[in-house]
Design goal:
About 75% of the residues lie in helices and about 0% in strands. The protein contains 13 helices and no strands.
Length: about 190
């Protein structure tokens, strides 16, 4: 909550310091999540885009600790990242794609992520100009497509055409193309 009572410049400085502390420390990541990830997620709705992007940077760093991922999603990080992923800045888009990819690796996170509309954000991010962003998005969609009986949600969000375009046109690397094909195979269900 201290982050909200400060000026915008102070919040940016606080988020920079927090990001630097989280770089290589799983213990620090756990402490931040346990202390209240909610206040960081709320910064994703701040009216200053720099603060929004730094909040996403912190969330992304926290997702590198697998033990924190479920708490992060349950606190509402998907909704926050969905908002920040609309800010057209290459570094920001990369961070959001990494966070979505890391969070989707946890089976316990997938249902809530789908419920909170992550597919729409992933589809938008998959059209990025950078292959690493496309790969992260396709990998996240592949993880989410493993969620049984949720295939229709991903298909209705527009995942199939985006995966086909990425595999056939946009992607430069075989691993991204293969991930798209695996995801399409997962999405082919009786009701889709």
């Amino acid at each position: 909550t201290k982050l909200f009572s400060s000026s915008s410049d102070e919040v940016v400085i606080d988020t920079l310091i927090l990001c630097s502390l989280l770089v290589n420390s799983t213990t620090a990541r756990r402490r931040v999540v346990d202390a209240g990830i909610e206040s960081i997620i709320q910064l994703c709705t701040h009216d200053n885009t720099k603060i929004q992007m730094w909040a996403a940077a912190i969330i992304t760093s926290l997702t590198f600790a697998p033990s924190c991922r479920v708490k992060i999603v349950r606190a509402g990080a998907t909704r926050g990242l969905n908002i920040v992923s609309n800010i057209k800045d290459d570094v920001n888009l990369s961070r959001c794609s990494i966070a979505f990819c890391n969070l989707s690796a946890e089976i316990a996170c997938r249902k809530q992520m789908i419920d909170e509309g992550v597919a729409t954000s992933l589809i938008a991010l998959a059209s990025a100009h950078h292959e690493s962003i496309r790969f992260n998005c396709c990998k996240a969609l592949c993880n989410l497509s493993c969620e049984v009986s949720r295939e229709i949600d991903l298909v209705q969000a527009g995942a199939l055409p985006e995966l086909m375009i990425t595999a056939l046109v946009r992607s430069e690397y075989p691993i991204t193309k293969l991930t798209c094909i695996k995801t399409i195979a997962n999405l082919i269900a009786d009701d889709t």
